[in-house]
Amino acid sequence: MMNEFERLEVWQRSHQLTLMTYKATKLFPNEERFGLVSQLCRAVISVENNIAEGSGRRTKKDFIHFLYNSLGSLFEVYSMIRVCNDLNYISNEQVNDFNKTILSVKMMLKKFISALSSKV
Length: 120
Known about the structure:
The protein is an all-alpha fold. Helices cover about 75% and strands about 0% of the residues.
């Protein structure tokens, strides 16, 4: 099936992070539309898209590669969330919500990578 990745809890949580990000960036200044907003949205969507793409790959080794790409994008998101907070585009409360979700996705990705790696 095409949507098997949607059953993965890590993909679902990553999707929630994407929706959080898009909602938060709607309130950013217009001058950030092609800068920080664009970069942040590309990075956050990359987290869930790499999970989806990897799930469709032929081998577990390929899937693991895409999960590592997802993890890298997640760290980009974390970094940019700090910048957004430093520029007062998002509140401390929003940062806490983002950090909880980012940490959750990070832990899920690491566990998933570990589980798949033990089967390679």
